[in-house]
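Re: your question from the hallway

Yes, I did run it. Sequences:
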Amino acid sequence: MSEVTAPQATQELNLVEAVDRALGQILEDDPQALLLGEDIGANGGVFRATAGLEARFGPDRVFDTPLGEAGFVGAALGLCLAGLHPVVEIQFDAFSYPAFEQLVSHVGRFRWRTGGHYGLRLVVRVPYGGGTRAPELHSDSPETLFGHVPGLRVVVPSDPVSAGRLLVSAQGCGDPVVFLEPKRIYRRGRSPVPERFGPTELDRAAVVRDGDDLTLVAYGAMVELALAAATRLEAAGCSARVLDLRSLYPLDRESLLAAAEETGRVLVVHEAPRHCGLGAEVAALLQEEVADRLLAPTLRVTGMNMPFPLFQNEDDALPSVERVLAAAQVMLDY
Amino acid sequence: MYRQLVLIRRFEEHAAEAYAQAKIGGFLHLYIGEEAVAVGAINAVRETDHLLTHYRDHGYALVRGCDPKACMAELFGREDGLCHGRGGSMHLAEAARHFWGGYAIVGSHIPIGAGMAYAMQYQERDEVVLDFFGDGATGNGIFHEGLSMAALWNLPVIFICENNLYGMGATLAEESPVSEMRIKAEGYTMPSIQCDGMDVLSVYEALGKAAEHCRSGKGPYFVEAMTYRFRGHSMADPELYRDKSEVQRWRVRDPIPSFGDWCVEHGVCSSQELAQINEEVEGEMLEAVAFAEQSPWPDPAEVGRWIYAKPIDPESPARSEGAGAAVPLTSDAGV
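Structure:
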């Protein structure tokens, strides 16, 4: 299983190709795994995340569903009860809302409610977020809707390798996982990925750039933006750490607290609306645990408290490097 | 089957008494009057066939063989309950008996049954899925999504609609454009049959036919059992929406004495034997209540156990079996 056991041939893939490869690996390794969703079969999914998989594994194992997310997420729960390990694709972020009932009322609490009789090995993949010039209801960031549900895990990759490794790990963890894929960076460029994705710890954030003066906490497509901001900050003499959360529920408290203690300033960046966003949870955690170690209040650079705007106003609504730099400056000047 | 009918009735009468004494908290939805459906249906299929039900679920658990003591303790919210006091009255479940639970949200288990049936077909298992719901559920979109997938993929699932004439406090006329729910299945080209839900033999016969259909690969089947609940929607229901005389008229058709009479008339057993059964079941139920009463409450420190496969968060009560230990799964279909 592990990618460290032997040197492996690598290939350059973008994020969506890495997802495709990871799904192929899951189907190869786990005879109980199967994929379902809208247009994922012959079409390979609207984003091509399942390209070639129906041909490789057959139409019984990689199959199209009717356009009813509540129904097919419910059906996936039923597949789990029969001992299968489905991976569901929900075509766009907001299409997860019809399935909310199944995820919240049943999927998240099944193991608990049955007193441990039965746990669900289910992954629900959701391409999410803005920045693609897609309209409202095709650009939402619903992470805290799901991150508020005990029993569900919420995982977000930020690059091809983390996408592959986190997806493989999510599928094997034994808990239901909402796996949010930042579609804005699906084709952002290729990076070398291993022949096979080894498992990784699901609950761990990753320091993707180290620094001493400030920590930028981000996930998904915002990691790239945080890295760009960190480069600009460095030019201005500020050493910024970038912490990629990866797991939004549960949160890697240890890494967050370490970042706060070591850099004294934590700035959270997310696309989702500010109100009750993940930034609020991070800020509250730091306030509760390490308030006396902070050199500045924890600030948030986020999407706006509004429905996601149409393409012409999208850039105004989304976090930008400039907004991150401005907030960082406030914190450095505090 | 007579014993099972009495078992459900007496179990629920004792539960109602305990609820009135505040020994059972939350809500309590009684199946009294509809017992013939669970008994007739479950006896007509194999033990390995799968059951999913609405929240009025005590009867299915008992007929499937779940321990009445554990069921009663679950209603009492105790640690020895069928689900360790986590699921409560509406979420009885026992994986090992292929009883996949009651579901509190109306209709939401209908596509879950379709998914299980997909798995039966995919895994080439000779098992069928029984998906029980009420007439009220057919007004929910999820009902249609479930039936649609089942028909589309030709799945071995039997949809059993218990038409008890009321969706909570709404009459059929108020909740549905058609009074016979099987008509809704026709749109999905699903064969259907209507049976007398007050007559255990009528249900048994209908389910036998439906199961044979499903098991022979002909796809889903819809059974509509015409029935009536003698008690309110829940214990809190003042029943202002129906006339007491209507309830009385239906009580004349009580499935238990009717079937008892049938048994005696057909020489299956004597009335003494029936009385004996009644007495035995009553004894068992007294035991079940006593068992539930003496069972401990779940330890508050453990109330968050089983939320995740492994403990995840020091702040949350979520915990599992302890580091590295697998969560025990009693089903052969385990994760």
